[in-house]
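HUMAN: Please help interpret these tokens:
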Amino acid sequence: MKLFHGLILLPLFCNLAFADLPFKKKPQEFATHRPGDVAATLRDGTAVQRNDLATQLRILAPSPSHPGADTNSPCVNFRRVEERKAVLRAGAENEILLAESSECDSTYILVFDKAPKSEWRHVQTLRLPSRLQRPEISFVELIQTGVSEITVHHEITEESGSARQEDFLVLKMVGDRVEAVLDATEHSEITLTNRSPAETDNLRQSQTSTFSLLKSPPGAAAAYSIVEKEVLTDNKTEITRHRLWTWDPELERFRPSPFDGGDIRQAPLPQKKPAAKPAAGQPQESKPK
């Protein structure tokens, strides 16, 4: 009888043991005591060191056939690596590395979060295309005082013989991930060939937007709203319109609405590090290390 019970329970114990095993081993979390050492290795490390580090940090080259997609090949050559300090969420301490690679036509944003035991945990690596021009990256306190968002100007999302588009992004740390909470066209241009043999000129359509900060009233969901001035040009016709991007705390996104573009004092969104300390009432941009 004891043997009979043992034969019944043995398959049950085996099933429970295998049920606890994951189907795929999770990648180990990358942590370092000094993000500056990571930057130094990306700049001056040996080929093997840079390859291993880029693989661990998911610094991947873009796909030749699909520019928006990544390959499994690490990007290992960088012409410049910058170190920035910022606070990307309340109560956190973050260090960001900006790594530019001409070989991979990309700019990488590597986000580290301060963890216990004096460690810095790698949170995420984002890749921005920079084949034709370098995107302009700043850190601006848009929503909450003391917490910065990452703003990106001139991200080229399309480039062909007849079409070009650049986007403006606002990236925010939501939970443990950095997400795009605003993505708007900053400049686009389309050129169409002659429409009929009698017409000798090309048809050109373009859109150019500039973005400014508007101080929110007391009690608003965010410290600032973003005013977009959009100029549309269709051949010889020009139209100007405005949008107001306001923070929606439930969706955790900026949402657009029509705006009259009245005479309200606005501050331009910074595109580079300011030469002097901003005046009182203006958002603070995090200083590079």
Notes: Confidence is low (pLDDT under 50) at residues 1-25, 274-280.
